[in-house]
Amino acid sequence: MGWWKFDGDANDVSGNGKNGSLNNFLGNPWSNGLLDDALSFNGFDDYLSIPGSETTGSAFDLTNAVSVTAWAKPSAVAVGGEWILAGKASYTFSTNYALTMAAIANGTTSAYFYGGYSGTGQGFCGLNGPGGVNTWHFVGGSRGSSGSNTQLHCQLDGQQGAVVNQRTLSSNNDPVKIGVGYSLGNPTYFPGSLDDLILYNKTLDSAGLCNAYLASCYSTDPSFGIDCDASCVGD
Question: Which architecture, in CATH terms, is 2-224?
Answer without folding.
Answer: Sandwich (2.60)
